[in-house]
Amino acid sequence: MSEATQSGSIDHVLHERRLFHPKPEFTQKAVISTVEQYQELYAAARDTPDAFWRDQANEHLHWFEPFDEVCRWEPPHANWFVGGKTNACYNAVDSHVQAGRGDKLAIIWEGEPGDTRTLTYRELQTEVAKCAEGLVELGIQQGDVVSIYMPMTPELAIAMLACARIGAVHSVIFAGFSAESIADRNNDASAKMVITSDGLNRRGNVLPLKATVDEALAKSPTVQTCLVLRRTGGDDTPMTAGRDVWWHDVIDKQPGDLAAKPLDSETPLFILYTSGSTGKPKGILHTTAGYNLWAKRTFQWVFDHREDDVYWCTADCGWITGHSYIVYGPLSAGATCVMYEGAPNHPAEDRFWELVEKYKVTILYTAPTAVRAFIKWGDHHVDKHDLSSLRLLGSVGEGINPEAWMWYHEKIGGGRCPIVDTWWQTETGGIMMSPLPGITPTKPGSCTKPLPGVVPMIVDELGNDVDTEHGGKLCIAQPWPGMLRGIWGDEQRFVEQYWTDVPGNYLTGDNARCDRDGYYWIMGRIDDVINVSGHRLSTIEVESALVSHPDVCEAAVVGRPDDLKGQAIAAFVTTTGRECNDELLKELKLHVRKQIGALAQPDDIRFTAALPKTRSGKIMRRLLRDVAAGRELAGDTSTLEDLASLAKLQEES
Ligand code: PRX
């Protein structure tokens, strides 16, 4: 075990030694196929960023008017591709039609009930133009904010792209949020319109989306129009005269020939609200050219995209992953994307594998929380299907525990597919660190190395660089095109949250460590560190040790106050089915002790049926800290998926 020799650096206790090399068959055809190629790109982006990004932008985006300055960096404000005019919708849709690839499939969509629809790039162009024309008819102009609260239908992507086409700013709100959350977001952004649907299919039930929106609109004075897609049918959708209009009445009749508007590079593209650890959600702002370029290039590098790939990202467009890796990245790269509306376990727990087999998916991008659910549901669901079309797997959203990584690799990837564990954030716009699947040997649990243009830095409490193998705060030392441009309407919070702690550098809010091979290991959020007897431990290492026990499915670890040690370690554990008794409890404590040492042995272990998670699947350790300490729950719970799991834990306290 390493000693904490630096000011507040974090001890690293989990030792993962497995290494998986890319297979030569994969490397031969890869977009980046030699280490030297990566090193050259990396050095060029770091040492001569202006020249590097000038070439990238000229080659990979369409310019109605050329830019005359690559990056104007006045910390913490960056302007990229100053003076140029482009359009993210044009780059994602029209450019392919223009290049003679209009007949290629852009979207293969499947609804939860099993209905399907495909759209070629040409068809998508017409649909997007019609929607844009409808928005204009309804009074939407450049700069207006449009909230989108919709199920995962093609119209969700179409609505986003239609906003981009005319320079309106979309704010997608995940369709699981409450009326209160919608109203907060509408008001914070002064949204002028909400686009929604009558209902949403979820595990065979219909959720009345429009009714929720109505409740929100009663408290959203800036919203003038509500555009409603008929998705689930039924006659009982409440429509308010003068405010609400049906999609089929307004959009379907449009000619579909409105061209994409040339927009300044820094035109706001979207706002996406993300929860802070406390307080009200932040509207993260991304703008047009830099974001678009970052989403496209990172997609091509990380997913090794080839012309005949069938790519499926299982995220929802309500999250940044859906923005960057369902819509703007893959479509700008001309990919064929599978889009699925529903739950992974409807009608049965093999739905994802059925879809992979049916559409011959070659690249699958999903989240650790889903992988852990698949493990819990059992291998027999996977075994029913032919997954041999898969060639590459991706993971995003949280650290993937090494044992879940191994299962994903072996059971889903058949041992042949590289895994790209992609580290990034809503704020970064796109992937920042990830293996490049043709060249990077992977270590389970590590997001490996930074992409070209990403210059990471790890510092201790005083802002000094920490040594190799020591954990500290992860910062980014150079501006990159996809970086957030601000928090909507809150300059002060933007500066304080990201740019004050380590001046001039972007503070990610995550802890990380870099190992001797230059591989990065994300150690969780800065707030999640536990301090046991003066040793600062990262939660994810203790969690990964617990998950490596065959009877543990998921684990969340938090600190609770302890008179003697400063903090004691409290673990919350879900099992794969074994009886939760004292014997298992003792076994788990010993298991952690054996895996990483006595210091990391949990003081309390509590079994639970489910862990409280955000709606995007992240474990909410902040709330578990309150439960572990026997405190009243504090802060914002609006992003919590399953309040019941938390209430139950509290009752048992
Ligand atoms: O803590 C990191 C974790 O998720 C945070 C970003 O969350 P969000 O803005 O919702 O974006 C999620 C989709 C990119 C990060 O600060 N995180 C995300 N990916 C990983 C991760 N932690 C470890 N490994 C990852 N691959």
TrEMBL record:
HAMAP family: Ac_CoA_synth (MF_01123). Its cofactor is Mg(2+). Its EC number is 6.2.1.1. Catalyzes the conversion of acetate into acetyl-CoA (AcCoA), an essential intermediate at the junction of anabolic and catabolic pathways. AcsA undergoes a two-step reaction. In the first half reaction, AcsA combines acetate with ATP to form acetyl-adenylate (AcAMP) intermediate. In the second half reaction, it can then transfer the acetyl group from AcAMP to the sulfhydryl group of CoA, forming the product AcCoA. Residues 38-92 form the Acetyl-coenzyme A synthetase N-terminal domain. Acetylated. Deacetylation by the SIR2-homolog deacetylase activates the enzyme. GO terms for biological process: acetyl-CoA biosynthetic process from acetate. Residues 99-488 form the AMP-dependent synthetase/ligase domain. Gene3D superfamilies: 3.30.300.30, N-terminal domain of ligase-like. Mg(2+) binds at V547, H549, V552. PANTHER family: ACETYL-COENZYME A SYNTHETASE, ACETYL-COENZYME A SYNTHETASE 1. It comes from the Bacteria. This is Acetyl-coenzyme A synthetase. ATP binds at G397, E398, G399, D421, T422, W423, W424, Q425, T426, D510, R525, R536. It catalyses: acetate + ATP + CoA = acetyl-CoA + AMP + diphosphate. Keywords: Acetylation, ATP-binding, Ligase, Magnesium, Metal-binding, Nucleotide-binding. CoA binds at R202, R203, G204, N205, T321, N345, S533, R593. The modification N6-acetyllysine is found at K618. Residues 541-618 form the AMP-binding enzyme C-terminal domain. SUPFAM superfamilies: Acetyl-CoA synthetase-like. Belongs to the ATP-dependent AMP-binding enzyme family. GO terms for molecular function: acetate-CoA ligase activity; AMP binding; ATP binding; metal ion binding. GO terms for cellular component: cytosol.
